[in-house]
């Protein structure tokens, strides 16, 4: 499944929604700053693990929660 990492002024979000372009993401999220993707789940896990090694729960747990849950978007939790 293709995922996006979305940065706003307030949150980092993970999304499993399909977008044609970053402008669609910008229109959907208030205070949009940037987005990465679309990436496979293992690429998202690797990126988040490399860039935010102190995430809690871990990047893998957060991506798995998004993929197994009913919501299309999940707020990434903070660092330890």
Structure description:
- A hairpin with a 3-residue loop joins strand 1 and strand 2.
- This protein starts with a strand and ends in a 5-residue tail after the last strand.
- The chain has a 4-stranded antiparallel beta sheet, sandwiched between helices.
- It has helices at about 20-30, 40-50, 60-70; strands at about 1-10, 10-15, 30-40, 75.
- Helix 2 (about 40-50) packs antiparallel against helix 3 (about 60-70).
- Helices cover about 35% and strands about 30% of the residues.
- It is of the alpha+beta class and about 80 residues long.
- The chain is built from 3 helices and 4 strands; from the N terminus they run E-E-H-E-H-H-E.
Condensed summary:
The chain has 80 residues and is of the alpha+beta class. It contains three helices and four strands. The chain is 35% helix and 29% strand.
Key structural traits:
80 residues; alpha+beta; four-stranded antiparallel beta sheet; globular
User: What best-fitting shape do the alpha-carbon axes yield?
Assistant: globular
- Tell me the number of helical segments per DSSP (H or I, 4 or more residues long): 3
Share of helical residues = 25-40%
Radius of gyration: 12 Å
Strand order in the sheet with the most strands: 3-1-2-4
Order of helices and strands: EEHEHHE
Query: Cα distance, first to last residue?
Result: 28 Å
- The average pLDDT is 94
Largest sheet composition:
4 strands, antiparallel
Number of strands: 4
> Which percent range describes the beta-strand content?
25-35%
Poorly predicted residue ranges = none
Structural class: alpha+beta
């Amino acid at each position: 499944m293709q995922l996006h990492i979305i940065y706003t002024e307030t949150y980092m979000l993970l999304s499993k929604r399909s977008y044609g372009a970053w402008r669609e993401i910008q229109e959907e999220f208030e205070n949009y700053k940037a987005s990465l993707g679309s990436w496979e789940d293992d690429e998202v896990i690797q990126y988040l693990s490399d860039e935010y090694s102190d995430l809690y729960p871990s990047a893998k747990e957060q991506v798995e929660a998004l993929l197994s849950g009913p919501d299309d978007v999940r707020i990434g939790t903070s660092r330890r």
